[in-house]
Design a protein that fits this description.
With about 450 residues, the protein is of the alpha/beta class. It has 18 helices and 14 strands. It has 2 domains: about 230 residues, 3-Layer(aba) Sandwich (D-Maltodextrin-Binding Protein, domain 2); about 200 residues, 3-Layer(aba) Sandwich (D-Maltodextrin-Binding Protein, domain 2), CATH 3.40.190. About 40% of the residues lie in helices and about 15% in strands. A 5-stranded mixed sheet has the order 1-3-2-4-13. A 3-stranded antiparallel sheet has the order 10-7-11. Strands 5-6 form a two-stranded antiparallel sheet. InterPro entries: Bact_solute-bd_prot1, SBP.
């Protein structure tokens, strides 16, 4: 069997050194490819970075993150908070740790009851570790109330337990299709006519014939589970959310997606993503070389085009995902970081009010979009013409279609899958075994999923 584990892990290290964008493999397996928020300045050899912002007279708070870019954003928001809240001034000391170090350090501090910061970023794949037993985090329900009606509910739910919200979300991570208009126009394919995966498959066949097989409709991943996350969302299924936390990977959605991808590879309408995923240098080059005409990815991938593929400006259109059956959800939220307030904070209410202002308020959301380029959770901005029609914005001006038009079209269809303690194990097994067996080796889908199920049941 040709496995891509070595290349995949090398790709993860490469991605970890990228300084823009947010998130990757759908289940956000931190050991494998994690969330690219975990990849921003989060390579394991990074040194700690400490910075203090705000007046000495302000209430002092400590905040940890695994991404220096995040702390730079939060530091800016401290200034905005202090300007708007003269009677509640804060001074914040920001510390950026390597990804694993920070999460391990936070777990130890919460377990021992000492040494935890007031505020801390927690990557979505790590979040279940902090919701076990007696939760040592401060509920954000009251602090979220001023903004909650405008927030995407699923992005709050993923950081919740027993009716309490424990994480302030960073972005939606809405997954869309990226279509190369230059290629599709050249070969007479209208992407706006593609509504179902059946339509998509037929378009791929037409592209193959028109290009003499030189251009594939897409590339499928052996180093990430985004495609399977898309399928599960469309069917309303979830491999990590069985009763009592049981795992079930033998789902109709997973079977149908893998069988479809296997057929694409057999008939030559798709290829396997170089290095296993599109979110590494090899993937970028494959797109630049015009080898594929489309692929699904979260909206945070826009930053990859802006920063690593500027030659593609004006060539890429964004659109809702195709579905297996009409009426299914046409998007799914992938990746994320929830910022928490710990119960060890001496000023939990103030800390909660600040972080929800920074990440969920209209002003904070505007800055997340402008500074970080993420699709914000506050939907009020999705219809704010000063934001959505700002032609000077680097993301709006880059793409053939407006990302906010797509967001608004799928607003009520953005599903989110569960992240549980078994999510990393599922992702790891699929990325090192199942996807390679099915897509590289052509193994029977049912047989491969049965083996995966048996393995994962032993891991529970």
């Amino acid at each position: 069997m040709k496995r891509k584990l070595t290349v995949f892990l090398a790709g993860a290290v490469t991605a970890a050194m990228m300084l823009s964008g947010c998130s990757s493999a759908a289940g956000t397996d931190p050991k494998a490819k994690a969330d690219t928020e975990a990849q921003e300045s989060a390579a394991e050899d990074n040194k700690e970075v400490v910075n203090t912002v705000g007046p000495d007279s302000g209430t002092h708070l400590n905040m940890w993150s695994f991404a220096e870019l995040h702390n730079t954003f939060y530091a800016d928001m401290v200034g905005r908070w202090n300007k708007e809240n003269p009677d509640r001034q804060i001074q914040v000391t920001f510390t950026t740790y390597p990804f694993s170090d920070m999460h391990n350090k936070l777990i130890m501090a919460l377990q021992t009851g000492q040494g935890a910061p007031d505020l801390c970023d927690v990557e979505i794949g790590q979040f279940p570790n902090f919701l076990q037993g007696d939760v040592q985090l401060y509920p954000l329900n009251d602090a979220l109330k001023p903004y909650q009606k405008d927030l995407v509910p699923s992005r709050l739910d993923v950081y919740s337990k027993d009716g309490n919200y424990y994480g302030a979300p960073t972005h939606v991570g809405a997954t869309v299709m990226y279509y190369n208009m230059e290629i599709l126009d050249q070969y007479g394919i209208d992407y706006t006519k593609i509504k179902t995966w059946g339509d998509y498959t037929e378009a791929g066949k037409k592209l193959k014939e028109a290009s003499d097989g030189k251009v594939k409709m897409t590339s499928v991943d052996t180093g990430g589970v985004d495609w399977l996350t898309v399928a599960m969302s469309e069917y309303g299924e979830d491999w990590a959310a069985g009763k009592d936390g049981s795992v079930n990977v033998q789902l109709e959605s997973v079977k149908n997606m893998l069988a479809m991808q296997q057929a694409w590879l057999t008939d030559g309408t798709a290829m396997i993503s170089p290095a296993g995923i599109v979110d590494v240098e090899e993937g970028f080059q494959n797109i630049l070389d015009g080898n594929i005409a489309s692929f699904p990815k979260a909206l945070w991938y826009m930053s990859r085009f802006v920063n690593y593929m500027p030659e593609m400006k004006g060539k890429i259109a964004l659109a809702p995902l195709p579905v297996f059956k009409e009426g299914q959800n046409r998007s799914v939220g992938i990746g994320g970081t929830g910022t928490v307030v710990t119960k060890q904070s001496a000023n939990p209410e103030l800390a909660a009010d600040f972080i929800t202002y920074a990440k969920c308020s209209p002003e904070g959301s505007r800055q997340i979009w402008e500074q970080l380029g993420f699709d914000v959770c506050n939907t009020d901005l999705w219809t704010d013409d000063t934001v959505t029609k700002d032609s000077s914005n680097q993301y709006i001006s880059f793409f053939k279609t407006n990302p906010f038009d797509v967001l608004n079209e799928v607003k009520s269809e953005i599903n989110t899958l569960s992240i549980t303690k078994m999510t990393p194990a599922i992702n790891d097994y699929f990325c090192t075994t199942t996807l390679n067996e099915v897509l590289e080796d052509g193994k029977d889908v049912d047989e491969a999923l049965q083996e995966a199920q048996e393995y994962l049941e032993l891991e529970q």
